[in-house]
Every structure is written in C-alpha cells, then in structure tokens.
Amino acid sequence: MAATKIIDAPRNGHEMAPLNTRARGDGTHGVTIVLTAPQRNSVQSVDIPGGEPERAAWSGKMQFFLSIIGYSVGLGNIWRFPYLCQQNGGGAFLIPFMIMLILEGIPLFLIELGIGQRMRLGALGVWNTIHPWLGGIGISSCIVTLFVALYYNVIITWVFFYLFNSFRYPLPWSSCPTNGTGFELEECAKSSETTYFWYRTTLDAAPSMDEPGGLKWWIVLCLLLSWTIVFFIVMKGIQSSGKVVYFTSLFPYIVLTIFFIRGITLRGAGAGLMHMYTPKVEKLLEPTVWLDAATQVFYSFGLAFGSLIAFGSYNTPKNNCVRDVLLVSVCNAITAIYASVVIFAILGFKATVNVDRCVDSNTEILVKNNLLEVNATRLVYDQTIAKYNTTEMAKFHLSECSLSHELDNAAEGTGLAFIVFTQAIVELPGAPFWAVLFFTMLLSLGLGSQIGILEGMLCTLFDIDIIKRVKKQHVTGVVCLFCFIVGFIFCTGAGEYWLKMFDSFAGTIGLVVVALMEMIAVIFIYGHERFTEDIYQMTGYRPGLYWQLTWRYIGPVIMVCILVSSVVFMVIRNPTYGAWNADLGMIEQKDYPNWVMIVAISMILAGVLPMPIVFLMRSFQCLKVDLDIHQGSIRRNETTASTKEMIDNDDDDDDEDDENDFSGPALGGHVKTQSDFSDDEEEDKPMTMRMMMMRPTTTTKTSNVLNVPTSRKPNYKKDAYDV
Fold first, then answer.
1. In angstroms, rounded to a whole number, what is the distance separating the alpha carbons of residues 607 and 506?
2. Which residue of 330, 348, 481, 542 pairs with 268 in a disulfide if CB–CB is 3.0 to 4.6 A?
C-alpha cells in the first residue's frame, strides 16, 4: 500500500474533502488538488505571497465613523431641513421627522451597512452574490450615483466662487453696482444686492433653458478646481480620503458652534427661533407633511447610493454595525436641528434689520407729508400706521413692515445659501470673516458628501473584473475627467436650471426604487432570518421585534408610499423651473421644454431599467453568470480518466458541504441563498464524488483511501501531495 503524506499548513476555510480515487499501478494517486481562497475577503490590507492584494480596511474606528458622518451630514442639513421645519408646522414637524427616522431611516441604514460588512463587497458584488438575477440593483445604483455626482460637484463649484469673493472688502454682494451716470443698475435696484450678485455676477443667468448662452469661464475654472481636489482626495480610496474626513467632518461643527454663539447674541434671534419652532399641530393632518418628513430622512442618510455598502465592506467582520447605525442616526438628527437653530437665529436678525429699515423709510414718508412728527416714538408710529388701510398706504407709497412676513420669505437650497444668508452676513460686523467661515463650512459639507458618493460608485466599478485590473488612480482619473466634461452643461447661463432638473428627476425616483429593491432583496430573498443571524454573529446582538417589523412590513410600505406619491406629483403637477427675468428683477416659473423632459425621462429610465433588464437576461440565460460565489478555486495538476468526470461534477456541486457553515464571504465561507435550502433539489441530484465521500466508509487492508479530516477552520490551509 502506498504511503500517504499530509503536509499541514494554515487553511483558508476550504480544505480538501476525501477523495475515493483508484490507485495507479505504480502506487500513486492520479489527482493532486491545491486549494486557494480569493484574497478579497480578508480583514486587513496585507499581501499574501502569490495572491492579489487584500481588500482595503479602515485604519481605525474613528476614521470610519467620521467618514460616515461626513457622508450623511451634508448640505441638506443646512439648507433643506430648516426650510421644511418652517413650512410644515415649525416644531411640530419634528414629530413626523423622528417617527420616519425610527421606522424608515434607521432600519434601511442597518441593511446597507450590515450587508456590506457581512460580504465585504461593493454594491454590485453584494447583489450578485445574493442572487444573480439581482445584479441590476448594483448597476442602477451606480448610474443614479453618477447623475448625482455630476451636479453635486457643481454646488461645490459655486461655493468656491463665493469663497474666493469673500476675501474682498467690502463684500461684492453688499451693494449694487452703478452705471456710468452713478445710478444703480436697474436689474439690481429691482431685486436686491445679493440676488443680483447670484443671478448676474455668478451665474450670468440666461432667460430660459432654450437660450443657455455660452460657457462662463469663471465657472469652468472653479469646476476644474473642484474635480481636481475631489480626484486627489479619492484617488487611493479610503487610504487617501480617510485622512481628509478628519477635516471635512469636524470643521462644520466648529463653524456651526461659532455661528451659534454669535447668532443668539444678535438682535432678533429670539424672534427667528420662535417663528421656526412654534408648533402648528394642525399641520400634522396634512399628508404632504409626513411625505416631506419621510423624503428628508431618506435623502439625509444618503441611502441607495451604494456608499454605505462600500463603507461597511471596509469594516472588520466583528465590527458592531448596529451601534454605528444608532450613533450616526442620532448625530444626523441632532445636527439638522442644531443647524436649524443657527440658521434661524441669524435669519431672525436679518428680518429685524429689514423691518427697521422699512419703518425708517415709512417714517420719512409720513414726516414729509406732515402725518407724523420728526421725533415720534415707535409706539406713535405703529398707532399712526394702523389708521391707514391698504389703499391709503399705496397712495403714500408706504410699505408693510411685518417681522413674520420677512421670516416667511425664507428660502431653501441655493436661494438660502447664496441669497438669503449672504444678506444676513452683510449685516454682521466683520462681514468678510463670517463669509469665509460660512462658505468654508459649506465646502467641507459638500466635499464630505461628494467623497462618499464617489467612493460608492468606484467601489461598485471595482467589482467588475475588467476594471479591477486597472490601477485605482487611473479609473478615478477617467471618472473625474468624464464628469468634468459632462459638467459643462452646468457652466452655461442655464446651469442652475439644469441642476434643479437633475435634482428633481435624476436623483429621486431612481434612488427610491433602488432602496425598495434593496430591502426586498435582503429581507425576502436573502432572508430576514439569515440576515438576523449575520448581525448576531458580527455584533453579538440579535435584532428583535422592532427590526423585524420595520424590515418586513413598515419600511417597504413607507418606500412604496414615497415612490407612488413622487410619481403622482410628477404627473399631476406640470414640472416647471424658475427662470431669472432680468427686466423684472425676479424669478418667473416656466415649463420645461419638451426636449428637456425627454432628457429627464431618459435619466429616470437609465436609473431603473438595469434592474428588469438584468433580471430578464439572466433568468432566460441570455447573459453569462460568473460570480465566484463559492470563494474557492481548484487547480487540477493531473487527472485520470476514472476521476475526471467525478471531479467535474464535484465542481458544480461544491457548495453541498457548506450547508451548516454560517461563515459568509467575510470569513471565507459560502453565502447561502434560498436555493440552498431546497430539499427536493437535493434528492434529485445525482450522486457525486463529494456526496459519496460524505457517507460512512469501511476501510480494509486493501483499500487505498486518503482520509483527510473535514472539519472547517477559517484560518487553516491544507495542501495534499501524493507520494
């Protein structure tokens, strides 16, 4: 009987099963098998001799936490949430916001972060691993993320332009420019100083999307600067971007605190806060308030971009992702409320200053018409104004000076940041200093979110084998260059109109559909019980009734409501955009041109169609599936005619001995899908070599069986050689 020698070495989770081979005449076996595991499921970034570099990992817990905070806490917390509070019931809006945060935001947040950490793959790899038919989810997520990245960096471009102009004294938006005769330009006089600087000096706005005008060279240069900075930040992945997040995540809180201390000491700050947070409980009866709350929670977390999956994939398998989700969620909500306090404290000051100017102007008119004494007090002024109705006030050209009216005119988005808040900054002593602080804060928030958006997209791209072979710096450079060139459409006079169109169509329906499919894929296809077990193995905490209800029932229902309402509102309400009318010095609403609507619908379809297309192509086997799910590769050095057929069959059924293995790709094991648990299929399968070897056998003196232990140890590798 030939001697058999076993050489033990550390294993990687796939050791060799017993082989019932027929000995050759010379006493040697006909098969030599060497098992190796792919390197992408390791925890640290180390090099294995003869293998590919391991998947990148966070250098520390703080780096991961700050990256998540920098991505989740973005510009929406500054210029969207305060506006929603003001328009939807003030302090009462916090009730639906917190409810939606608990029922929708936190559960979906854990799904993305947890599944990424479990499988240690990007968005494309995760959904392909769960089921090949779901591969379109990763493609859709990548396409929608590309659309958002295109226009999000344009906002950073505008912030750069304002930041550079903030170093001038006096601030260029503090007064209207004059013509050759010394009078203010009519366009500026009809609007305001900050409005004129935004629409004419910064954007040089066109009258409509049909007349965009040429490229604005100053915007093109700032856009080039923005993409260059973003490239150098993300070109090496988290190895480079992980160092920047210490600034982009922490600096906004420092600036907000400085503005908070200064804001609450200003005259009128209390009036602004009272106006914003005074509860209007009757507003809660309006369905749109709850829809706004759900939508704000969805977008404030940055769900469905693939970025959270990518961030989770860089974690160690034993990281407590449940704790991370809860901490980031609380931090996100507190930041939104904190930023609202700062914004409305300063807007209250601006409104008070505007009311004082209005009163002074009315007093001057009344004195000229001998209707008021020169040194009259404010009480006497109020009593005098109360005597006149609207017609009489118009006769004397008197204005209505109302603090609540001023506060009701608060804007959102670019209007809040570049028009309303800049006017408040002008009123502060040392205005350039506050302008530099404010726009540096916006720059930090924008870069933090843009880093996360691009990281999610690039991680998805690197799940593709062809792109995986190219250096990350080269792929990142090509992506940034492509986005810069496409971004030229935002550098024309119609740039803001295009940005609002992208924001309204490209990043809404597509993201909601992707998020809904993600929840269905994990909870109903991968299995909520299996995902619960994954969370338990990674964190030691088993998700209970709250998580099961929100994952299986409440969360999907909320996502469906958001999707249906978004489609209905888009159909019922004729989509319009605000175009700048230079003659009137104001914004006027215009319908989107037909060709622009075709572009908008095309973007929506581009973000949604990959899911059904991949599903149909793979279900009808029109597309080859090569997923590397089994996490092991077998290299045959030599075979005999008697064993070749059995080994070929054994490759196809390689996952049968993984039935009781709970270690997924993160630990070098197999990720099971629903198909793994079909008893009927197991009974119908032909007896293969591995199945035969799993049966008890009786060895005799004449038998020649190589009996190798089949216990699984994740960090052990065995090479078998026939002697």
1. 8
2. 348
